Amino acid sequence: MPALVYLNAVAFVSSQNHPILVRTFGQERENNRDIRYHYIAHTSLDVFEERITANPKNTESYLGLLYTMDDVAVYGYITASKTKIILALSLSDTVVKDAEVVNLMKAFHTAYRSAVANPFLRLHAPADAVSDHANSLQVGGAKWKNFRRAIDDIAASTGAISAPPPPPKN
Amino acid sequence: MNSYPTELLAQLAPVMFVAGLNPPKSPAPQPVTPTTPSTPRAQDSFTPLITRLRTTLSAVRQVSIWQSEKTKTFQIVLVDKDVRFPPRKLHPPDDYPDQTPRSPLSPLTPSSPLYPDGLVAPVWIRKHTSFVPSVFVLFLHLFEFPPHTPRSPLDLPDQDRERQREAEERRQDSELAAEIAQRKKATNERTIKLTVVLLASRRMLDDTALDSRLTYIRRQSGLDSRASLFVLSPVSQSELNEFVQSLQQALYEPAVDYYTSHSKRVRRKRNRHTHGNSISYPTPPVSSVPVPRPLRPEGWTVRYEYKMACFAEFRGEDEVALKHYQDAYSALLLMFASITTLPPRTKRWAEAKVLADSIDIKICKLYLYNNEHSLALSFHNTHIRKFCDFSRIWGAGENTFEFWSWMARQQRVMAELLEHGMRSTLVLPVHRPSLLETPVTMPSQQSDALTSLGVNPAHALQHPAFYYYTAARYTEKRREMFTAALELEARGAVAKLSPGFANEKKVDHFSLVVEMYTRSYELFKQRVPSGTSQHNLGRLIFHVAYLIAQTYYASEQFDMAIKFFERIAKTYRKEQWDVMLRPLLSIWYSCAQQTGNMELSVQLLLEMLGHGSITDDAEHLEETLYGVLNSTVPSSQDPLVVELLNFQSIFRIWTHFWETEVYVGQPATFQLTISMPEDISLSSLSFASVSVYFSDDTSTPLVIHHSDDAPDSEKKVRRVALGNVSQYLFDAGGAAEGEANTIQAYLRWGSGVSITFMGTLQLEVPGTLKLAKVVLTVKHNSWWIELPIKLNELQNYGDRTLETPQWLTSVDPPRHLPVKLGDCTTATVRSRPHQLHVLISHSGPAYLDEEYPITIKITNADENVLDVTFDVILHPPEDDSSANRIILEDEESTSLIRGVRFGVLEPGAETVKTLYLLNTGAIGDRTLDVSIRSQSITQRPSSPVPRTPGSAGLQDVNETLQTLVVPTAQAIRVTSHVTYQRPLQPQPGLADLRMYGNDFWEDSVSGEATITSVFRCVASCGLKLESIQFESQEHTMARLIDCSLDNIEPEDTADDWLTGDEFTTICRVTVSQPEGSKSNIPTPGVYVVRWRRLLPDGEPGTLSTTKFALPPLNPPSDDLVALLDLPSTGRLHVPMVMRLTVRNSDSSRTAVVTVHLEPDPSDGFVVAGLRSGRIPMLLPETEATLCWKLIPVECGFARVPKIKVIDRRKAIVPPGQEPPDPPPEPGSDAEGDIVKLVDVRWDGRTGGGEEARATGDIGSILILPQ
Fold first, then answer.
1. For strand B743-745 and strand B661-663, is the pairing parallel, antiparallel, or unpaired?
2. Which residues does residue B1064 pair with via DSSP β-bridges, in sequence order?
3. Which GO terms describe its cellular component (chain A) (predicted)?
4. pLDDT of residue B289
5. Does some domain include residue A106?
6. Cα–Cα distance between B1071 and B1114 in angstroms, integer?
7. Which residues of A touch B457 (CB under 8 A)?
8. Same structural domain, B407 and B506
C-alpha cells in the first residue's frame, strides 16, 4: 500500500536552535535541495516558539502542522529536552493523519536518542565536559554515519520516500 | 484585489437612494417670493439638520470587500431630487421590430457592451449599486405658514389669517403631493419602494392640523400606507442616528422584497431558457474575421445564476448566494472547457476569466464568513488547479510568464482577502493536532471522523503572509519566464509570443516581488505575539528579508541588499546555520564588490574562508582574497578591524595552562596554539604580528613580530618560546614597552600549520591568570587588517567542548599530550599556605568530672609574622544527660569559643595554650573542631600590582581545621549491693497511738537496708584520692543508720589508687515505706569522691570531684512469714530461748497457722515448749510469738529441732461444704501451705525479694562447753 505521506526531509534542531542534521530524501536529495530544507527548518522554529508561548503548559511533544510553504507541509515535534524534529512532507491533496506523523516522529526521536547515547561521541572530550548540547550537535556531523543511516532506514521503511507522485493536477 | 473590478468583489448590500438632501448652496441667492416669505428662514433652520443627515447617512456603510455582519444596513447613495433611473428596457431599433424590448445591458441589445456574447459586466453590478435603488427615500420640506404672534393677549384669533393659512397650506401640500406622485410613478415602474420624509419644525409637530395634512398628502400622492411617510424635525445627533437606524429597519423588508422579485424574475427567465432553447446557435463560420455569435446556453446559465447570486447577496442570504455563485462557476467552467465556446485570448475570454476569478473570491469569502476555512481553501485550490489545466490548453502553461502572473495574482488575492477578513471578523485557525484539541470554540463543520484524525495540509488556512510569500515566489517565476522570453526575442526566434508580451515589458517585476515580500515581511512582523521578543521570532521574517535582499541584488540595488544581509547574517551566525550562511555570504560579497566596498569584501572573504572548509572552493577563496589585497587599496589608513564570529573555523585556537593552580610568585606555563585546518591555507597572507593581551583590552599586549628568517619556518608544527611575560599582565605603562625584547617568529599559516606560543606567567598576589585576546595583524601592501579574537568566547563555539586540548610536548617529532582534566584555560594563583605547625596533644582518655587538659602548641615555621586566632567548637553531646563544657583561659562555653588570640607569632616562635574539656554524664567520645586562622602581617615588598579592593590577595589568611575526638571514660566505677533485713522489733499494735505522731518511724514493715559499695579505680593512669565522704541527705522514707565512713576522717581515706584498686564502704539505712507504696526510695545520701589524675610524670592533676549516688531502695514485701530467732552460741546445759514469730503481713487476710516442732533424737537439744499446736488466728498485720527453751546437751555445732509452720487456711472447710474425703494427712501439703521459715541471723534479701539463704535452712548453734 503506498504511503499517504511523502517525506521530503527531516530536520533535527538542538535545544539552542542550532542545526543538528537536515536530511533530505528521494527526489529532493537527488536534486540537491538541502538548503531549502535548512530554510524551512529554521523558519519553522518561529512557529515552535509561537506555539509554546501560546500554550506553555503543553506537555505533548507533537505540535502538528506548523505551516505549509510552497509545496511542502511542515510538521513539528519537540522532545522533552527541547530538541526539535521537523518533518517536511510533500503537499498533496489528502488528509494527513496525525497518528501517522506522530509515529514517524517517534521513530526519528528514537533514532536520535540512541545516536546521542553513543558513548564514543565523547571519546575525545575532556573528562569533565558536561555539555550535552555539543554532544547532540556532533551526532549530525559528517563523522557519525549511524544516525544518518538510521534516519534513512526509517524513511525507507515507511515507504514515504518513494518518488513523490507528480503534483496533483486535477 | 486591484487586479479585479471592485464591483465584482465588494460585498453587496441593499441600496437606498436618498434624495432631497442637497448641500446648502450658501452664496446662492435664494429666490425670494412674496408668497412664501417663510421659506428662507425655514431653510436656514434645516441647514444644520440636512448637513448632519448627509454625514450620518453616508457613514452608515462603506463599500468594502469583507462585511460579514448581518445587520440591516443599507448602502446609502445620496442623489439629486430629480434623479433619473437608467432605462429599464430599450425598445428595439426600428430594424428589429420583431424583438421584445430588452435591457440596455443585455447581450441581445446591439448597443450593449455585452453584445452579442458577453457574460456579466461590472457595469451591471454598478447599475444595481449606484443607479437603481431598492428603496428611495425622498426628503421634502413641509410647508409651514409663518407663525402669527398676536400683538396682545386680548387679540381675538384672526379669522382671515386662519383662512389664509389653511388655503396656503392646502395649496402647498397639493404641490408637494404632486411632486411625490411624480416620483412615485417613476419608482413604481421599477417596483421601488418610495418613502418620503417630511422635514418640519418642532412647532409643527404639535400642530393639530398635522395629521390631517399628512393624510391628505399621502392620499394625494398615492404613497403606501406602511412606512412611507415620516416627519423629521431638527433633533440631536443621537436621535438622528436612531432615526436613520429605524428608517433602515423599516425599509429593509421592502428592499428584500425588491431583490426577491428580481430573483424570481431571473429564475423565471432561466427556467424558460433551459426548457425553451428558443435561440438558435449557428456554428461559427470558419473565417479569420471573428463573426459575432450570440451567447450560448451555458453563458445564459452563468448570467442567470450570477444574477441570482448577486440578488441573494443583496438580501444578505449568504448561503443562497453561495449556491448560485457555485452554479455560475461550474457553468463558467463548462464554457472554458471548450475552445469553441470561449476561444482563448479574446476579449470575452479575458472577461470570463476575470469573472471566474472574482466568483472564486466571492465563494471563498462566503465560506470564510462561515468559518469553513478548509472548504474555502479547497475551493480556491481547485480553482487554481482547474485554470492551470486550462492554461496548458490555452498555450499559457508553466513556461509562460502569463501563467505565473495569474498564479501570483491568485495567491495575492487570497492574502488580501484574508487581510481584509482579519481586520474584521476572521480568526485564523491554529493547526494544533486534533489529539490535543480542547473543546472547539469555533463553530466549525470539521467534526467528521476523517478530519478528527488529521488535517489536509493543503486545506489548512494560513496567515496571509504565507500567501504573499507564495505570490512573490510566483512573481519571481514570472520574471524568470519573462526573461526567457526576452532572450528568445533577442535571439530573433520568431517564437509565438503572447499578446501580453508588450505589456509585460513595461512591468517592473522586481518592485512587484519586493512589494509582495515586503507585505509578507510586515505581516510576519505583526504576527509576532505580544510578550515575546521580536528577536526570538524573527526567523520567518529573516527568511523573507533574505529573499527581499536577493531580489534587490538581482535588481542591482546592492546597497539595499547589503543592509538586509547585515541584519540577517547576525541571527544565522548566532544559531550557527552555516549552510544558510554560505549562499548569503557569497551574494553579500558580490554586492560588496559591486558597490566597491573593499573593506566589506575583505571582511566577507575572510568569513567565507571559515565556511570554506565545507565548500570546495577554499583555495579559490584564498586566491581571491590575495587578489583583492593586491589589487586594491583600502579607503582609509586606519586598520581594518575584522571581528570574525566564526574564526574557529579558520583558526583552531587553544590556550591552556599546564597547571591550573600555582602559588604566588610561582611561574605558570601556558601554551597558545593557533593552527589552521588542513583544507584552508592562508600562506599567502602576510601576517605582520600577533599581539597577545593578557588581561583586558587596555593593557599593553605582547607583540610577536613576523620574521622571514625565524627558524623552523618550514615545519608544520612550530613552537615560539616567549619566556616569562608577566610584565604584560598589567598595564604598567612604559614598563613593558621599555623592554627592547622583541620576539620574532615565522608567522605564516599554510594548511595544517600549527604555531604554539609558549611562555610563563606569574603573579605576586593571588588572582587568576588567563589570556584575554589575540589580535592577528595582516599588513599587505597598503592594507592593514586586524583580526581580534576574544579567547574567552572560545568555549562557546559549536562542538568545541568535545575536543580535548593538546599540550605540545615535542616539536620534532611533533607530540601532543591531551589535557583531559579541568578547565585549563585559566590558572588560579593562590597564596602559599602558611607554614604553621599545630600540635594538639592530650593524654586520653578523659575522665568524667575532670577538667581534661588539651594542649595546643603552635609553631610559626613560616617566614612571615603571623597573627593567629583560634576557634573551638564543641559538638553537642549525643545523649541529653551529658553536659560538657570547654574552658579556655577565662572563657567557658558549652558549644563555641571563638576568636581566642594566640597573638602575633614571629617566625620560629611557638606558643602553647591549654584547653580544658569538662565532661559529665555518660561516657563516650567528645568531638571538638579546632580552627586556627593565621593572617600574614608581614609588609610585602611594594608590588606594581594595583590592589583591587576586596580581592583575596589583600587578606592573606590561612585556616587550619582539625577535628579532635576525645574518648571519655570513668575514673572510678562503683558497684553497690543492697540487702534488706526484716524488722525484728514487735509491730506496733493497731491501737498504738504513737503511730499517729509526726515523727513516728514505721520501719517495722520494711526493715533495714544494707548498702555495700565497692569503689574500683578503672582509670588507666591511676588516681590520687583526696577524700571519700558520705553526705547524708534527709529523706521521708529512708534514714541513714550508720555508715562505715562515719568514724573515719576524710583525710584518712586519701591514698594513691592504681588501676584495679578497690575500696568498699557499707551503710545501713532504715526504710519506712508506707503501705502499698511501690516506688523506689532514693538513698539518703551520696558518696563524694575527690580525686586527682596522676599525670604521666607522677604529679597529681587538677582536683576533680565525682559524686556517686547510691542505688535506690526497693524493699521487698512478705505476706505470711515465720521468723526464727536463735542465739548464735550457747553454753552446754545452759538453757536458751528459741523464739518463733509468725507475722501476717498481709493487709487483708487472716492467717490460721499451726506450728509443729519435730524433735529428733539426733538433735543436740532438749526442747521445752509447744510440740504441735495452733496459734490463735492471726489477723492482718499482726504477729504471734512462740518461745521454746532449749537446753544444749552436746558441744559443737548443734542443729535446731525441725519446726514446721503451716498455714491451714486453705484446708479449712467453710461451713456448708463437705470436707474432702479422705481427710488429708496431718502435716502434708494438702493440709495447708508451709509458711516460709526464716532464720533471722541470716536474714537478708535483695530488692527483688530473693533470700540470701534458702528458706527453711536453719543454721546451727555453736554450743560451747561450760
1. unpaired
2. B1014
3. cytoplasm
4. 45
5. yes
6. 9
7. 65, 68, 73, 89, 91, 96
8. yes
**Whole-angstrom Cα distance, residue B1034 to residue A52?**
84
The one-letter code for the residue type at B565 is F
Per the structure, the count of domains in chain B is: 8
User: What pLDDT sits at residue B445?
Assistant: 43
Q: Is the ipTM of this complex over 0.90?
A: no
Residues ≥6 apart with Cβ < 8 Å to B566? none
Spell out the residues 6+ positions from residue B290 whose beta carbon is closer than 8 angstroms to its own. Answer: B284, B343, B346
CATH of the domain at B174: 3.40.50.2300
Question: A126 and B451: CB-CB below 8 Å?
Answer: no
Residues B779 and B888 in one domain: no
Kindly provide the b/e burial profile for residues B1002-1029, where b requires at least 16 CB atoms within 10 angstroms of the residue's own CB.
Answer: bbbbbbbbebebebbbbbebbbbbbbbb
Q: How much is the pLDDT for B324? A: 92
Say yes or no: B611 and B658 in one domain: no
Residues of chain B with pLDDT under 50: 27-42, 278-289, 436-451, 613-614, 734-736, 738, 740, 798-799, 941-953
Closest CA to B820 of B656, B964, B648: B656
Domain boundary among B1109, B1135, B1152: B1109
Supply the pLDDT for residue A12.
92
The pLDDT value recorded for residue B1214 is 61
B784 belongs to a structural domain: yes
Q: Report the C-alpha gap between B828 and B663 in whole angstroms.
A: 8
Q: Classify residue B280: in a domain, yes or no.
A: no
Task: Decide if B85 contacts B186 (C-beta within 8 A).
Answer: yes
Query: Tell me, what's the pLDDT at A138?
Result: 74
Interface with chain A: mutation pick from B436, B801, B820, B823, highest number of A CBs within 10 Å? B801
SS3 B461: coil
* Residues B390 and B401 both lie in one domain: no
Torsional sign, CA B100, B106, B110, B116: negative
B78 and B223 in a common domain: yes
Tell whether A163 is covered by a domain.
no
This prediction has a pTM of 0.67
Q: Tell me, yes or no, whether B480 and B570 share the same domain.
A: no
**One-letter amino acid identity for B1096?**
P
CA B199, CA B230: separation in Å to the nearest integer? 8
CATH number, domain with residue A144: 3.30.450.70
Number of domains in chain A: 1
B455 contacts on A by Cβ (under 8 Å): 64-65, 95-96
CB contact under 8 A, B532 and A96: no
User: For position A15, what pLDDT does the model report?
Assistant: 87
Q: Give the closest residue to A86 by CA, choosing from A137, A13, A151, A14.
A: A13
Q: Flag whether residue B538 sits within 8 Å of chain A, measured between CB atoms.
A: yes
Query: Bridge-partner residues for B873, per DSSP?
Result: B896, B929
Considering the domain architecture, whether residues B943 and B1020 belong to the same structural domain is answered as no
Which tops the pLDDT comparison, A170 or B301? B301
Cis peptide upstream of residue B1222 (ω within 30 degrees of 0) = yes
Q: Between β-strands B767-770 and B826-830, what pairing exists: parallel, antiparallel or unpaired?
A: antiparallel
Task: Answer whether residue A167 is part of any domain.
Answer: no
Query: For residue A135, what are the domain limits?
Result: 7-158
Identify the pLDDT of residue A34: 82
Q: What is the pLDDT of residue B360?
A: 92
* Domain span including residue B656: 639-830
User: Would you state the pLDDT for residue A119?
Assistant: 81
Contact between B1049 and B1082 under an 8 Å Cβ cutoff? The reply is no
Whether residues B578 and B691 share a domain: the answer is no
Q: pLDDT for A64-115, tens place per residue? A: 888 888 788 999 999 988 899 999 988 877 888 888 888 889 999 999 998 8
- Residue A50: per-residue pLDDT: 83
Give B293-333 pLDDT, tens digit per residue.
777 788 888 888 999 999 998 888 889 999 999 999 998 88
**Across the interface, do B430 and A39 touch by the CB < 8 Å criterion?**
no
